[in-house]
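Need residues for this backbone.
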């Protein structure tokens, strides 16, 4: 019995374009088992809101002083080493296939650390940046995670209205907040009454996720949690 055509195509692609580990260069997978074991994981105790390590497991000072729209942010990894390289390869170097193993890492994480939500919503790019890049890396992650979890992905409601500089280019939290003020809106009401999980690649201060959450809640969303590949310390 012959294997399905899709399997034959995968075998042919693997032969023509073998995968190399982005961490050590070993042939076989984009993130080999050895490099996977070396990833800097975020372990409890953490701040229950922003998800960053917090020695007492209570709200960190930054979150304690803020009235935030986001209900919580969770992430399996610190943004360094192989995970940093993976995010850069996916985001800037068109290695879209990395979304599959990266979503697998997110899936493994939420199996042990469930995040409440019934819909996955990727953080959107402005149409100008989407044209430049050709794809939204957060949407790729959401799509692959949706396949693994069976959770619906909705990527046509939350939109980015304004083209702003990347958050990575800002120098402090006030600039990050200003950078995303009124940047997002909802184009329809299909998420009304839903519990949403926002998907993004990396977060630093959480200001983008919070801005998205505030917009979603104004449109009738019940709760919003963020799930990201990595948190930048």
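Answer:
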């Amino acid at each position: 019995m012959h294997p399905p055509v899709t399997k034959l195509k995968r075998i042919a692609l693997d032969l023509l374009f073998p995968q190399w580990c982005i961490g050590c260069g070993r042939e076989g997978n984009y993130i080999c088992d050895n490099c996977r074991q070396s990833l800097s994981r975020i372990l409890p105790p953490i701040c229950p809101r922003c998800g960053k390590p917090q020695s007492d497991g209570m709200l960190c000072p930054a979150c304690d002083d803020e009235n935030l729209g986001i209900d919580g942010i969770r992430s399996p990894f610190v943004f360094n080493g192989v995970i940093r390289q993976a995010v850069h390869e996916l985001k800037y170097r068109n290695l879209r296939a990395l979304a599959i193993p990266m979503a697998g890492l997110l899936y493994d994480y939420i199996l042990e650390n469930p995040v409440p939500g019934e819909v996955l919503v990727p953080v959107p790019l402005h149409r100008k940046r989407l044209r430049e890049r050709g794809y939204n890396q957060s949407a790729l992650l959401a799509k692959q995670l949706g396949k693994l979890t069976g959770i619906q992905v909705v990527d046509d409601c939350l939109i980015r209205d304004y083209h702003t500089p990347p958050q990575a280019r800002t120098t402090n939290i006030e600039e990050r907040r200003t950078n995303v003020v009124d940047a997002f809106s909802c184009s329809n009401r299909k998420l009304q009454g839903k519990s949403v999980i926002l998907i993004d690649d990396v977060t630093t201060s959480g200001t983008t996720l919070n801005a998205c959450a505030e917009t979603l809640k104004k449109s009738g969303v019940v709760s919003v949690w963020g799930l990201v590949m990595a948190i930048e310390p």
